[in-house]
DNA sequence: CCCATCTGTTGCAATATATGCAACGGTCAT
DNA sequence: ATGACCGTTGCATATATTGCAACAGATGGG
C-alpha cells in the first residue's frame, strides 16, 4: 500500500537468507542502487539492518530485541510457563505451547525433554500446520467458513506416510478434534515422534492457545503417551482457568 | 533518511511495548490517522504487524521468523554450539556465546545450567555491556579510537558496588583484559553471580565472539570458578580453530 | 606504475508518491 | 432513535522519493 515502505520491508526477508551487498539488494528490488542505499540506511538507523565489515548488509540486533519484547508481551505465555515446566517435570517429555496467528501456527514456548533426544522445534518458528496436534486444535476452533478457506489454501506436504494428505482429510480431522476436545499427531510429522495436545481456552470459551507433550517412539510408545492425556488436559485447563480469571486489560497510555 | 520508512519503522518499538489502536499510533507518530493506517497496512502485509480481534495492532509473527533466520545464519553460532554443550556438560554451569554489533553486545547462544538456578539472560538480548565478561573481551579488541569513543558514550549503571563505575575504569579494565586474553565478571552485574570468559578469534586474530561460564556463589565460589579458566580457554580456542579453518565464503548468488 | 573497472556515494531535477482533508459507514452506548 | 467514536476511502495538493549522471575510493590487471 505504501511503495517505499513496501520496498524497504522486502529487504528484510532477502537479508534473512544471508548477507548481501548493495548491488544485490538493488537488483532484487528492481530499483536503482541509490534508492536501495537510502532504504538500507533508514533500516540501519533503526537497527534492523547491520553493516558488517566487508560492507555487506545483514539483519541487525534490534530485530532480536523486538522479537523478544513481542514474545514477552504475550501474556498467555507468562501464565502458562510455570505449568509447562511442571508438566515437563512430571512427564520428562518436551512440552510446547502454540498460538494461531494469520495463517500460521507458531510455538511461543517450549520446555525441553530431559531425555537426551533432540526434537527440531524452536520458539517463534511456524509449526507444520497440517499435521501438528496443536495446530489441529487451534484451527478446529475457527468458524466454519474460515476453516474451510484456510484448509483450501494450505499445502499438504507428506512428511511421512501418515501425514494428512489433503484438505478434505484435514477438515475431517479438524471436525473430530473439535468434538473430542483434544488432538494427537502420531508420526505425521516425523516418523518416530508422537504428540498429544490439549486446548487452552479464554473466558469466552474460544481456543487461545494449545499445548502438547511430544516424545519419540524409542522412549515411549504411542499408547503409553496417550495415558498422559488426562494430565495434559488437566494442565491445559488449569492454564485456561488462570488466564480467564486474571486477564488484566492494560489500558494505560 | 527516508521519511516514510522512518515513520513506519518507528511503529515497531511502539508496538513492542504492547498493543495499540490506530489513534494511538497516529498520535505517537504525529501524523494523520489515514497515514498511520496505510503504514500499518504495509507492515501488516509483510507480517511484521498483526491485528488482533479487538482491532488493535501488535507485533507480528514474521518478526520471530526473521529473528530466527538471522540468528541461525550466523555461522559462528553453528560451529560453536556443540562446544558450548560439551562445556556445559563438563562444568554443569550456564554457558553463553556473545558477539559485538554496533554499540551493543548480545548473546547469540546459551546453554542453561543443570543446577536449578535461573539466570536472567536470553538469546538475542543485549548484554550489560560495561560489566559482562564477554563484553569486555569483545570491546577490548576494538581499535584504540573506537574503544575510547564507545567507552565515552556508554552509561555506567551501578548494578552492584562492584560494577565498573566510569569510562576511565572501563578503559583500564579493557587494557588489562586485552593483555591477559581472558576476562571475568565477579559480581559486577548481579551480586552473587560470577563469570569467566574467553575470546573466539577469526583467522586474522581478531576477536569475533566471546564465550563465558557463569555460576552463582551458592554453587561455586569465585575461586573455584576460576579453576575452570583453562578449560574455558581451551574450548574457545577449539572454536577459533574450527572457525578459522572452515570459513566457507558463500559467494553463490 | 598507471589505467580500467567496480562498488558505494552525493546533488539535483522531475514526477511519482505519500499526505491530510473531508466525508462516509459501522458500532456502541445513551 | 440519536449522538459520539473509530476505522476507512477518494481525491487534490505538495512533498518526499526516484533515477540519473558524475564523483570518489578501492582493487586488480597490464
UniProtKB/TrEMBL annotation, chains A, B:
<protein>
    <submittedName>
        <fullName>IclR family transcriptional regulator</fullName>
    </submittedName>
</protein>
<keyword id="KW-0238">DNA-binding</keyword>
<keyword id="KW-0804">Transcription</keyword>
<dbReference type="InterPro" id="IPR050707">
    <property type="entry name" value="HTH_MetabolicPath_Reg"/>
</dbReference>
<feature type="domain" description="IclR-ED">
    <location>
        <begin position="62"/>
        <end position="245"/>
    </location>
</feature>
<feature type="domain" description="HTH iclR-type">
    <location>
        <begin position="2"/>
        <end position="61"/>
    </location>
</feature>
<dbReference type="Pfam" id="PF09339">
    <property type="entry name" value="HTH_IclR"/>
</dbReference>
<dbReference type="InterPro" id="IPR036388">
    <property type="entry name" value="WH-like_DNA-bd_sf"/>
</dbReference>
<dbReference type="InterPro" id="IPR029016">
    <property type="entry name" value="GAF-like_dom_sf"/>
</dbReference>
<keyword id="KW-0805">Transcription regulation</keyword>
<dbReference type="InterPro" id="IPR005471">
    <property type="entry name" value="Tscrpt_reg_IclR_N"/>
</dbReference>
<dbReference type="InterPro" id="IPR014757">
    <property type="entry name" value="Tscrpt_reg_IclR_C"/>
</dbReference>
<dbReference type="Pfam" id="PF01614">
    <property type="entry name" value="IclR_C"/>
</dbReference>
<dbReference type="InterPro" id="IPR036390">
    <property type="entry name" value="WH_DNA-bd_sf"/>
</dbReference>
Amino acid at each position: 500500500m505504501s511503495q517505499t515502505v513496501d520496498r524497504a520491508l522486502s529487504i528484510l526477508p532477502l537479508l534473512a537468507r544471508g548477507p548481501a551487498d548493495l548491488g544485490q539488494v538493488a537488483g532484487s528490488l528492481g530499483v536503482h542502487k541509490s534508492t536501495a542505499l537510502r532504504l538500507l540506511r533508514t533500516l540501519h538507523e533503526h537497527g534492523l539492518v547491520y553493516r558488517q565489515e566487508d560492507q555487506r548488509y545483514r539483519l541487525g540486533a534490534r530485530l532480536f530485541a523486538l522479537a523478544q519484547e513481542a514474545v514477552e508481551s504475550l501474556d498467555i505465555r507468562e501464565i502458562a510457563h510455570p505449568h509447562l515446566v511442571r508438566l515437563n517435570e512430571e512427564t520428562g517429555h518436551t512440552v510446547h505451547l502454540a498460538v494461531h496467528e494469520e495463517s500460521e501456527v507458531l510455538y511461543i514456548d517450549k520446555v525441553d525433554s530431559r531425555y537426551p533426544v533432540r526434537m527440531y522445534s524452536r520458539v517463534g518458528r511456524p509449526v507444520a500446520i497440517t499435521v501438528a496436534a496443536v495446530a489441529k486444535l487451534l484451527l478446529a476452533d475457527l468458524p466454519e467458513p474460515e476453516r474451510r478457506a484456510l484448509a483450501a489454501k494450505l499445502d499438504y506436504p507428506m512428511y511421512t506416510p501418515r501425514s494428512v494428505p489433503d484438505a478434505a482429510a484435514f477438515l475431517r480431522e479438524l471436525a473430530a478434534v473439535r468434538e473430542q476436545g483434544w488432538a494427537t499427531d502420531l508420526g505425521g510429522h516425523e516418523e518416530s515422534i508422537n504428540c498429544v495436545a490439549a486446548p487452552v481456552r479464554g473466558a469466552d470459551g474460544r481456543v487461545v492457545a494449545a499445548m502438547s507433550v511430544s516424545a519419540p517412539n524409542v522412549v515411549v510408545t504411542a499408547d503409553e503417551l496417550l495415558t498422559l492425556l488426562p494430565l495434559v488436559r488437566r494442565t491445559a485447563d488449569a492454564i485456561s482457568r488462570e488466564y480467564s480469571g486474571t486477564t488484566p486489560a492494560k489500558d494505560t497510555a
